[in-house]
Amino acid sequence: LKTGAIDAAFCQERETFTYLAFQLIYDYNHGSKVTGYTPGAINIPGNINTGFIIVTQDNIDSFDSEYSLDQAIGHHELSQQLSLISSMIENVEELAVAADETGRIVYANAACLRFCGYTKDEMVGLNIKNLFDLTILQHSQIDQCLQEETAKNFESTAIRKDGSLFAVHISISPLRSEVAPRGYTLIASNISERKRSQKALIDSHVRFFMVLDSIDADIYVSDLETYEILLTNRHMRKSFGENLVGKTCYQVFRNESAPCAQCTNDKLLDSDGNPAGVCVWEGKNAITGKWYINYDRAVRWVDGRLVRLQIATDISRIKDLEKESLRIQAQLQQAQKMEAIGTLAGGIAHDFNNILSAVIGYTEIVLADVPEDTSQHRNLREVLKAGNRARELVKQILTFSRQTEQELKPVQINQVVGEALKLLRASLPTTVTIAQNIQSDSTVLADPTQIHQVIMNLCTNAAHALRSKGGHLEIELCDLSLGRSFTDLHPYLSPGAYIKLRVSDTGHGMEKAILDRIFDPFFTTKEPGEGTGMGLAVVTGIIKSHGGVVTVDSEIGKGSTFNIFLPVIQQDIELEVRTEAPIPTGNERILFIDDEKTLVDLGRQILQRLGYEVAVRTSSVEALELFMEQPDRFDLVITDMTMPNMTGDELAGKLMNIRADIPVILCTGYSERISKERAHELGIKEFILKPIVMRELAKTVRNVLDKNGT
């Protein structure tokens, strides 16, 4: 072998190869070319592990050149393939490492050197643990790879030369031979970017769920086809007290076994099956009992399927506020009605008092001329009593409309009950029987007219309930002591002695829905024209103003019972003296003014009967002119308040400007402009509310004249 050259592929350092082919070019006799090969493995660099056959001058004759040449050609082609694979390994971005059984690195590709910051000389000979931060479990997986000849995959951390780290995904495979594994290959992919993306995605999910959980609304996602709940936020879990994932929405929200008839799922997709926008609706949840406004829409879930996203906001408080607003509006309307009633009551009171003045006044005049032992006298007394009752009723109308002060005094309720029953018996049909059980003569602080009105109202309602079939009406009055068990239910009451007035009937009774509203103003079950709905509202208002309470019990088909509780006062009432004192008289000169001729004539007759010299006028302007002409002619002026051209208080002021010592009495049916206090501030000596009663007028006139020293 004079000269020879090993093919360049052979000269290059290689990993362990199974076969290696080469060519020797030599000058032998006629200079022919001979190929040699290795049938076993060879490690380059390193020792030759198996036979290496090379053709020399000594064995050239015994070498089967034809056979060996075919073998060599095949192995040469394999060498070319291995060279290609080697080139590929060197150019991939994955980290490729070969290590022996002890973990000593015998090979690392260019990517591994570049990523880890080592040179080839520095890398070869390092232990695998210097390059990767392997856990005990991962070391055991490498051992399994060598022992079981199976591939393993796991994630770990690569360590750069400078100590910095980056995430990798590792695949290890054994290097096999016919004898035993000689080591393993490790392919590591740099997954730092993927890890950053995963972390960003996780952070995004965390932020997303933090946002969901921070929203004060119930949020959930459910499958559009199966109705299965896939996700809920914290607020919803708190609202329903459990994790709802895996359950169906109709089971959770409706306690149903099938999809709800009112389900909005079909509204969330258009005809092509694509999301159709937001569906907004309100509803009350049967499970929580709360009102929600719901925003539903179809969205794509993470796996691509269409799901329903619902955001449900609790609007129960808003509903309560709406209800409260309606209640306040109703109260405002009620206040406006009451204001209108008050205005109407004032006008009615003025006109009605003028009418009653004539009725009462002329009745008193006639009554004075009729012998007491005649039926005419008795009848006129009843007319007068009715007139006075009407007079008190007008006062009550004004009190109810909050335009006059309530006058309370010690009253024995049994006497008021007796008077009411006397009137009631005359008006009830014979099919209604009345029974009374009066066991109390206690005293309460009350307005007798108002208590009379309460009794008449309750009894009239009871009679109305009995009008179709008849029945039994009973009134009971008794004393009792109320303890905490009762007064705690009515905070404005205090424990102590009370009188109980009970009015019961055997009528048709009332259902609970009616009982709940029975004391509401303008609420009535009567037909139009039969009632205003104000009766029981007035009753409860009066009793509350007296420091009491009204309760009601009723049963359909058995009747109703109203109970009134009023606090008792420890005070004896002096019995009224039936013998009336003589009516005071006089002979002074009086100017009487009223714009109604009937009342002017009445005033003249009453005052003349009392002995006074009277001049009358129906015009305040004419009265002023008369007074200006003869200011010393009169000892007293009595004037109406409401008159055209000049009101009574204006007239009084002008008269006192002319003559400062002239006493003035102001009369009014009703006026918002003037009150007793205001009249006194103006220098008016006395203030009288119509209707004018002879005895009261006589007493007032005499008192004013006497005080003025006339």
Structure explained in plain terms:
The protein is α+β, with helices and mostly antiparallel strands and 710 residues long. It has five domains: 8-89, no CATH class; 92-190, PAS domain (Beta-Lactamase), CATH 3.30.450; 197-314, Beta-Lactamase; 315-373 and 582-710, Rossmann fold (3-Layer(aba) Sandwich), CATH 3.40.50; 409-569, Histidine kinase-like ATPase, C-terminal domain (Heat Shock Protein 90), CATH 3.30.565. It has 21 helices and 24 strands. Strands 13, 14, 15, 16, 17, 18 and 19 form a seven-stranded mixed beta sheet that branches. It has a five-stranded antiparallel beta sheet with strand order 4-3-7-6-5, sandwiched between helices. A hairpin with a 6-residue loop joins β10 (279-284) and β11. α10 packs antiparallel against α11 (375-400), α13 (448-466) runs antiparallel to α16 (535-545) and α18 (620-629) packs parallel to α19. The longest helix has 54 residues, at 316-369. The model is unreliable at 1-67 and 528-533 (pLDDT under 50).
